[in-house]
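hey can u check if this looks right to u? its 141 residues, i copy pasted from the old doc so theres a chance i mangled smth
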Amino acid sequence: MRPTLLTLVGLQDDYRHHGRTIIEPLPTLALPPSLRQSRDALSELGAVYKQVNAAFGRFAMDTLRASTIALNSGAGADDQDYQRLESRISALTDERDALAAQEMLDAAAFGGRAIDEDRVEFVLERASDLLERVGRLARPE
């Protein structure tokens, strides 16, 4: 809620945002020009950002499922399957953190910078691949 309110009143602060400016329900004229220019791409990026970063998003829920599978794999923390799966989850989490989707969203909302739609497409593809891989961990065959 905070990023959206700050964007609407034209203010910014030094705090790291937990979330993004929600632009979907807002009238175009209420948005700063940097958000108007690429509204569709930003909406798509925001939706993927939520699935990758939200506490109950797809990434979080799939890593929880995968971790539960790892715990149920045998002898607990000494189990090699557990260690291997937890290591893969950690690597995927590091990859998620490197996506930089929030930085792009914040630059458009608070920095007045237009987004590079090719860069958005690249981030969307990486996020989709990431979600697919973590989903496979959560649903082993």
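The longest helix spans residues 117-138.
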